[in-house]
Specification:
By secondary structure, the chain is of the alpha/beta class. The chain has three domains: 53 residues, 434 Repressor (Amino-terminal Domain); 124 residues, Rossmann fold (3-Layer(aba) Sandwich), CATH 3.40.50.2300; 129 residues, Response regulator (Rossmann fold, 3-Layer(aba) Sandwich), CATH 3.40.50. It contains twelve helices and twelve strands. A six-stranded parallel β-sheet has the order 2-1-3-4-5-11, sandwiched between helices. Strand 1, helix 5 and strand 2 form a beta-alpha-beta unit. The structure holds alpha-D-ribofuranose.
Amino acid sequence: MSTIRDVAKLAEVSVATVSRVLNSNGYVRSDTKERVAKAISELNYRPNDVARSLFKGRSKMIALFVPDIMNPFFPELARAVEDMTKQQGFTFVLCNTDDDLSKEMAYLDALTQKSVDGIIIVSSTMTADYIESFDIPVVALDRIIHSDISSVTVNNREGAKEAVQYLKDSGCQRIAHVAGPEHVSNAKQRLRGYLDVVQKEKWFTSAYVEQGAYHFEGAKKATEKLLTGQPEIDGLFVANDLMAVGAIKAAEGLGISVPEQLSIISFDGIKLGETTSPALTTMAQPIYQIGSRAAELLIEQVENNERKTFVEEFAVQLIERDSTCRREDDAIE
Ligand code: RIB
């Protein structure tokens, strides 16, 4: 009698992939599905329900992968995921991956050995093909991985447009952008939203955009370059709050007062933004809500042993504080 391993060998896939095809759970590429179905038919394989239920041992454990534990956004997100998993009776495991695929795969290997029930992933490196090798439900949080992978995110592009329009409406006449990493989906969306507003302006040049890598230091250097290269800049949209702290530091070092000479608006709404001087005007993500919702949706799939792809997007909200102000109408030459 053929086993699941015989099918995996003939189809040249992992046992986990065969299991996912049999249970119709999680992402499997269509060509892979065809190979597995062909092997099942050729071997006349009949899954053993008892073995299958044993194979799917439950650990009542949920893991969260985050790319940068040093960024205060992620501990706030982890708090929400942990509260929901605990409320639902699951153990919570937090993994810091440094957005390094080899670290993500090492964590994944260790967790599947422990029969983890599901994983919530914030990642710019994980791909749908790698997720196919998982045999557990996965939810992408904050950053979309693939349209076939469930996700919970925010309206990054619309939020960025609103931030830049807010600077324009407050009288800023030359608005620059400190962007997040080019390979990160939500950084690209925020850059897109900035360009949606400024690209039609005759003053706009690509010199008004600098990379800040989502880090304090990167943003400080990027802002120094922007303000020394284009001293006419009077508005700055920064792609996350942690970088905005670096931008404020850069302006301070150049003797530029915020917001009197330079208005700064950012993105995230982390608690740190309330404590900076000046306090940050920002597009606040519903951080607790998206973390909690991702955990809730993942656990629903684990409990019901079902796999469907859902995509949920939440709206960010403008929080006005002291790093922006209305400008007088004195036109810049
Ligand atoms: O501050 C960290 C950034 O990375 C946030 O904007 C969040 O969206 C995450 O993707």
